[in-house]
Amino acid sequence: MRDLYKRLGISQTASDAEVAAAIEACQHTALKTEASVVLGVKSRREEYDRLHALLCDIGRLRARLGLTHGQYWLDSAANDFSLAPDNDRSRHDALVSKVTQAVSLHDTFQRWRRYSPWIVAGGFAMIATATVAVGFLAD
């Protein structure tokens, strides 16, 4: 399906007069016919706008996932709703990062837990030594 707004060079929020002017100025006869049939009738334009919004959402999702069409699809009507791959971190990458951090913290805790009896015993020994030292100094 073609993105009629993109092919006519107008925005989706264009007024009926702007759409009619763009259709009239179009040099491509098949595009002109299709645009006048779809965008020229209010009910059909509303339905097309709903479908257009859905296809734009799918294009954004595909871009976020890094999916693009093959070389043979480029510059065709099938590529109208494709966007360039999104190089920002995806939600999946953010979740993987958080899970990796949680695993690292768990591993650190397990390492410390292995030595915890010795740490506790050392802490009690330090407290006992300090108490005895304070007792001797108080006398």
List keywords for this structure.
139 residues; mainly alpha; Helix Hairpins; 71% helix; 0% strand
In short:
This protein has 139 residues and is an all-alpha fold. It is built from five helices and no strands.
Strand portion: under 5%
Based on CA atoms alone, the radius of gyration comes out at 33 Å
Question: Alpha-carbon distance between the termini?
Answer: 95 Å
Q: Any idea how many domains?
A: 2
User: What's the overall geometry?
Assistant: rod-shaped
Structural class based on helices, strands and sheet pairing = mainly alpha
Please state the second-level CATH architecture of the largest domain. Orthogonal Bundle
Stretches with pLDDT under 50, minimum 5 residues? none
Keywords: Membrane, Transmembrane, Transmembrane helix
Protein name: J domain-containing protein
Transmembrane segments: 118-138
Organism: Modicisalibacter luteus
